[in-house]
Amino acid sequence: MSARLHLPTGWVTFVFTDIEGSTRLAQLLGPGYRPVLAEHHRLLRRTIAATEGAELLTEGDSFFLAFGDASAALTACLSAQRALADHEWPTPEAAPRVRMGLHTGWAEPRDGEYASPEVHRAARVAAAAHGGQVLCSAATAWRAEPLPAGASLLDLGLHRLRGFDDRERLFQLVAPGLERQFPRPRTADAVAHNLPIQVTSFVGRQAERVELRQLVAGHRLVTVLGAGGGGKTRLAVELATDLVEQYPDGVWFVDIAAVTDPGLVAFAIAAVLGLRPEPGRPMVDTLVEYAAARRMLIVLDTCDAQPAACADVVSRLLAGGNGVRVLATTREPLALPGEVVWRIPPLSVDPSPDGTESDAVALLLDRTTAARGGREPDPAESADLRRVVRRLDGLPLAIELAAARLRVLSVGQLAERLDDVLGTLDAGRDDPQPPVDPDQADSQREPDPAPAAPRASPPAQANRAGTRSAAERHLTMQATVTWSYRTLGPRAARLLRWLAVFAGPVELPTVEWMLGDDPLDPLSVLVDKSLVLAEPQVAGGTYRMLDPIRAYAARRLAEAGEEEAARNRHVAWSQHALERAHLGPNGQPVTLSLYALDPLAGELRAALRWCATGGSARTGLRLAGGLDQWWRERGLAREGRLWLFRLYGRLAETGEAVPEGELAAAYHMHSLHAGADGEFAEELRYSQRAEAAARQAGDAGLLARVLAGRAAPLFDMGQFAEAERVCREVIDWAHEQGVDSEALFAVLRLAELLWRRGALDEAAELLGAARPVEASRPVDRGRRSVDMLLGMVALARGDLVAAHEHLLAALRSRMNHGFHGRACDTLNAIAVRCAAGGEALTAARLFGAAQATRAGLRSASGIYDAYWAEQQTRLRRVLGDTAFDEAYGEGTELGLDEAVELALGVEHPDLAADSARFAAQAGGIVPRQPTATADRHTGHA
């Protein structure tokens, strides 16, 4: 028909079509392009004729059509696209991809043509489309009734068409036989970024943002590395949002987790940039050519989903032009030249220097408030909030999941349940990604990229297949860690499982000892994949797992049937480490330092837990014995008792045989713990059990040590004369048996009793004889109990010079070797010496510091407490209430190290016999002998 004779008037729907990438297609096909173009013309004219559309202009591969009915125009476009898709072209690469645009407006033809801005608007709608896509304006959508059978219109939002000031709402025709997934429309107002819009506030990370921004400014490839759930994506998006104005060609976010095949990585990036495949040309070449002349930042998220393919594309992009920068997030490096790897740290769990809450607590507060409908946690929950974030190692995803649990739990309840980290955080959610056996991981890795572009739209394939899994991998901690675990080979997976038995950081020799093999290769894999954190130290690096990852690995350890072997190996290592803490480099015993036990405490607790639940209770008793003094000096006597009770229960459960001598040592230790914890009936009961077991063992030295401890419960129950009698009998019996040194505790207890009743000369003589015995015993000499007691005797005599020298010697040794509980008594004694020497304010500060530290250690009252209270009352009378309270309060603000520094800085008294510091001063403190009204509670010099 003649278009010039049948041009519609009034509300006319204009249609423009052309072949996307026609120039490239012509170059590819050469002489074969002409028949393809002719077939394209024939198919479009056939559909136009069927709907009575008017063909106004045909030029090259372009059509300009006019329809009197909008519905008919959409039907024609739908039919044309289906005809193009169903046609058998010479080769798949020869198939033309046609884009179509429709707009409806009022128009009247003149001289066989339309002179109307509506025609230009229709052309701009078509220019916004992609090959295979049909776009229409809102005017066409409003008048296109009815739509073709099975078809619908997808609202793509408002867009500003090139050359027009207003915004046009665009719709995409969706119907069976048409592609659905396309890049964003090519319009003038295409935003300079596609960064995801966040629905929650961004909390903390100020220092990290500054540091990362500097790296991106100075380097073209920056990789943010970290464990799953560590906040890599959120930090990268926040940073990229700040940088939008610096990149005129945009900041573009690409989620590689949604890419199901390595060959589709380049397509995913191209789709975000609005690029489509060109016939016969690799997509990566199209991508590189496009980016070469542009200045843009590409944020590649979750590159570990396709690490090799990402590395290849990034390498090509960076080599293709100077204006492209890449910010990648991943769990393992891309290993490219010029790559700057920045490991994202967990959120800080320690309060800021200005007193504000840590980033981790701030995040938990924010998310908890949201979870509770805007109601902020009660200030009384602050301590438990800190416990939770420390237990979760500041891992953002774990904190987010924990906040969700606070809809139904109090913070305290949540903190108590975090021994089962995964079970608590993932409660109520199914693991969407079942675990994969790492032994078969190689068979599940993605295939190599295909050299040829797929026929269907690759971004559409990737989005359809991968979006769900990309979102679900962070629904649970289980899914998050499984994402990385499934990529491990057998050796790395086994090492991860076995490292789960450690409670804290480990050194390389420890890993080697544990594995029984060179661990460098599998350990490097775990570090690269951010499942293990490497923490460089001057003396050598350490390696640790975040607690949620450790909990996951522990589950896998049990499922692999390896738990018993791994935990027994860990117990053996713990026992070995405990023995080494008591020995010097030459293998000989050295003075016990509790500081050597501090870093082992977490591992020993883990080992004890296994001994009490699935391992050897006998070995557990030995481990507990190695921590004997540590429990009490760290204010943890109650914890020590609980471990012993658990081990007794394990013995009863398994019937494991334990020699009487080992039981006697355990009962003796238990008695001392009970006394320090104020459980005096329990103290006596276990003292009696220890004696019975020691007699059965027939070990004189052991029996001497146990009998020496019998005085403590007697003293605690107020039986002072009986306690003194027991001490003397033990000392005499030990001498007869030739085990004098094993009765040292009885000697020290007797000296305390003599000091208490004022028998100072006998006490001093007894202590003088005990000094070489104490010096010969590595487990005892660091306490310098002899010097402490001689200092107390000197104070009672009014000899400030002797008191000063003995007490400072005791304090130095006790602090040097980690005896913090005993150091508090020494600080009190030095406070008495200061008060007697005229340094009243210093005395009050030291009293306050000692009390604050003892309260933190939860120490029970000691033998000297009544004496300290009496001396403080005298000092208060000298200073007055206001001055005393102020100085005492200043002391409570001091840490133990600061208080010790203050005490050691006290000036030595004059050595002259007539010094005023030896005489009573008017209104001053006069040292006095203790009376029989001294405190009845236990204490150990």
Automatic annotation (TrEMBL):
What are the protein's GO molecular function terms?
A: adenylate cyclase activity; ADP binding
> Which InterPro entries does the protein's record reference?
A/G_cyclase, HTH_77, Nucleotide_cyclase, P-loop_NTPase, TPR-like_helical_dom_sf
Q: Which stretches does the entry tag as region Disordered?
A: 424-470
Pfam families per the record?
Guanylate_cyc, HTH_77
Please, which domain of life does this record's source organism belong to? Bacteria
User: Its Gene Ontology biological processes?
Assistant: cyclic nucleotide biosynthetic process; intracellular signal transduction
Q: Which Gene3D superfamilies match?
A: Nucleotide cyclase, P-loop containing nucleotide triphosphate hydrolases, Tetratricopeptide repeat domain
Q: Guanylate cyclase domain location, by residue?
A: 13-126
Listed Low complexity bias regions: 453-462
**What's this protein's name?**
Guanylate cyclase domain-containing protein
Which organism was this protein described from? Micromonospora sonchi
Q: What is the lineage of its organism?
A: Bacteria, Bacillati, Actinomycetota, Actinomycetes, Micromonosporales
